[in-house]
Design goal:
The chain has 195 residues and is an alpha/beta fold. Helices cover 37% and strands 22% of the residues. The strands form three sheets. It has a seven-stranded mixed β-sheet with strand order 5-2-1-6-7-11-10, sandwiched between helices. It holds the Pfam family DJ-1_PfpI.
């Protein structure tokens, strides 16, 4: 079984974490033969207070989480203190050394930039932080109009709902386009706006 970890932290943006969870959990349950499982983790496990008031339960702590093949770092207001948290940045760098695919949603990419993971690479983030993002590491090739950017072992997505698109891309990449289309239909996700 290969594992996908979705990081949780206080003031995480709810949809940054729950959107990819919905896609990936649906995939894992609908296509168990693909051999993937998804879990949530936080520094200490337990209850995490999200940015808009939702409380969620991290299934694992850093210490007891299964080793991940893919790690997703969401964004939200909680990323601001993480940008200068040496323990968190060291943890991210340690994950980079062992996790084959590091993914992010929204301002999660800014944490990756602060940790040095995006040096000289293409990436994206929420449209409202592009200037701040560029200031973290001027070598990052920022693609502000892309919903997600796949650079092989690093995958970044734009803000909030773009994490759903990125997660569907993960399904297509590791489970095939047919499985991704089935998941998209199953969660009834239509990326065209209603207005």
């Amino acid at each position: 079984m290969r594992h996908i970890g979705i990081l949780l932290f206080d003031n995480v943006e709810e949809l940054d974490a729950v959107g990819p969870w919905e896609v990936l959990a649906y995939w894992c349950k609908r296509f168990p033969e693909d051999g993937w499982a998804v879990h949530t983790l936080s520094r200490n496990g337990g209850v995490v207070h999200c940015s808009k008031g939702m409380d969620v339960l991290a299934q694992h702590s850093f210490a007891d989480a299964p080793a991940s093949e893919i790690l997703i770092h969401p964004g939200g207001a909680g990323t601001r203190p993480l940008l200068t948290d040496p323990d968190h940045l060291d943890w991210v760098r340690a994950q980079r050394a062992t996790v084959p695919l590091m993914a992010s949603v929204c301002t999660g990419s800014m944490v990756y930039a602060a940790a040095g993971l995006l040096r000289g690479r293409p990436a994206t983030s929420h449209w409202s932080v592009i200037g701040e993002f560029a200031g973290l590491d001027p070598t990052v090739e920022i693609r502000p109009d892309d919903r997600f950017v796949d650079d092989g072992d690093v995958l970044t997505s734009a803000g909030v709902s773009a994490g759903i698109d990125m997660a569907l891309h993960i399904v297509a990449r590791f489970g095939g386009a047919d499985h991704a289309r089935t998941v998209r239909r199953g969660i009834q996700y239509d990326p065209l706006p209603p207005v």
